[in-house]
Amino acid sequence: MYDVLIGSFISAFSTGIGAIPILFMRRTITHRLRDIMLAFAAGIMTSASMYNLIPEALGHSNLFVLTAGLLLGALVLLVLEMNIPHVDLENPDQGPLVPIEAKAFLIIAAITLHNLPEGLSVGVSYASEDQNLGNLIAFSIGLQNAPEGFIVALFLVNQNVGRLKALGIATLTGAVEIVTSIIGYYLSSFVSGLVPYGLAFAAGAMMFIVYKELIPESHGDGNQRTATLSFLLGLLTMIGLTEWL
């Protein structure tokens, strides 16, 4: 249980850590650097899913369980996205015609709900028989949360929210992962046979985020080549960490 708390704190508060630079910035982040960060996070999450979660789920079950869990994870993210108004972080005027405060609230709500399955992923991974899997998944989600926290804080600052307040809000959007990771851990620990479903669910949720959000966002501003190289670097980084640990 101690490891679950530590891992969930690391992954959750990486959102706030990633937002810290907003306190010192005098200029907005370039599209190029933003795309590199998002693509690197996509590589990390892809590697964690394909190299860790999916093999672990198959090792404890079969193809049917993997398919059911993976599709359910993607479906949950799809339902969340369909029921939360999406506001483009870089082009907020393309979103719904609502006041600035309401737009900021929509972003906060979307990111918070988006973090729910990520917390479950951490908790389920710690319930696995592989003692290193939880640390790897917590680390990979933490790396994904860092640029996400920065982008949220940057959006809030651009909407005339104070820098300290923006940092605090970005941090709180990740804190929900602590609660859901504990829920995922206890459910997997006490419900027989749930672990492989949970691992597959985590993989499906993470791959949905990668393909639906991170990759399109990192390729939308003419930085496809550098974003692709950054994706591969993230992929290799996570594989290297897996081998090293």
UniProtKB/TrEMBL annotation:
Family of this protein: Belongs to the ZIP transporter (TC 2.A.5) family.
Membrane topology value: Multi-pass membrane protein
Annotated TM spans: 6-24, 36-54, 60-80, 169-188, 194-214, 226-244
This protein's name: ZIP family metal transporter
Keywords tagged on the record: Cell membrane, Membrane, Transmembrane, Transmembrane helix, Zinc
Subcellular location: Cell membrane
Chief localization: membrane
InterPro entries for the chain: ZIP
